[in-house]
Amino acid sequence: MTTSAILEDVFRWRRDVRHFRPEPVAEATLDELLQVASMAPSVGLSEPWRFMRVDSPTRRDAVRGIFARSQADALAERESEDAAAYARLKLAGLDDAPHHIAVFSVEDPIQGRGLGRRTMPETTVWSTVMAIHTFWLAAAARGIGVGWVSILEPEAVRQALESPASWRFIAYLCVGYPSERHDTPELERLGWEQRQSACREWVRR
Amino acid sequence: MTTSAILEDVFRWRRDVRHFRPEPVAEATLDELLQVASMAPSVGLSEPWRFMRVDSPTRRDAVRGIFARSQADALAERESEDAAAYARLKLAGLDDAPHHIAVFSVEDPIQGRGLGRRTMPETTVWSTVMAIHTFWLAAAARGIGVGWVSILEPEAVRQALESPASWRFIAYLCVGYPSERHDTPELERLGWEQRQSACREWVRR
């Protein structure tokens, strides 16, 4: 297989995983994923990402509580039919995943000397998003699943994890070996939404 | 080589390219990159990314003008020593690159039915950022270079490209075959900044 075919295979099997087997990932492998994530592009070479392992049962419980509240609020706002469909989805692997990793972005990094972010300051956070995506792909290439939980109140998570004030909360990742492997998104399999992007053509100017 | 080693090779050689050879990339290959980008993850399966080919010489000139102004403003704000270092950098391949691609994000997509973006609405834009990163990696795997230009006023670009009002401007990409290949960032080679992230350890809670 060519490099591009292998890469596409990684893209195809990189899913948002919500069902995990209980056995942990080896510490050396997790360290490797952290290293590989650091190869992501960043604006001005600012490398603003910060990865936090959340191991304390108390803090994990706090995050589960925040998820449950955000989830209940989201459900309450939906119309009845939509709410029924929403209620059928499993949206996070927070109970099963052996590893919890919170990702933050330094708000105004000194590293990078401000290059490239004067007119588009969001590029700093976007660099962190690409580091998360890099981590996710590196995990997928090793048969490890990642689920990105975004149904959370960022400020509540920051408090529960006592993160530095200069860090912005970006993502909460559930990490572990998936209990099933799929090359299609779970939201598509459960009938929530269909992918349409592959049929879209270039806009031209 | 294992899949993860091949993937890391793609990460290592995926650089922000600012020096391009003039020959174009085959249309079929560009279409392939667009297809592969659509495999990116997206919040609620919303696929909010929109890719625009900018071929009109007039519009390309307009974007170059916006870059030149943003660049001059950035230079004027820097202290003398810093300004001299900044002035030595080549920050965009807008003159040489055979292809210009602007990327936008639909602000409030219907697709995805709002799932996962209630408390963290930025996850929509972040999905588009991951599609850009996917495009970039797919290009790198084919020996094609991408340079992300962010020294631009988003509103001025939107006007120059007459993009729909509901789309947010995210990135302007220069695309083509690189005139040199490097496994280190240009900003590091030119002494602007050093990478530090690979030495960073987990934060623990």
From TrEMBL, chains A, B:
Its EC number is 1.13.11.79. Residues 12-177 form the Nitroreductase domain. Keywords: Oxidoreductase. GO terms for molecular function: 5,6-dimethylbenzimidazole synthase activity. It holds the Pfam family Nitroreductase. It is an enzyme of class 1 (oxidoreductase). SUPFAM superfamilies: FMN-dependent nitroreductase-like (SSF55469). NCBIfam families: BluB. This is 5,6-dimethylbenzimidazole synthase.
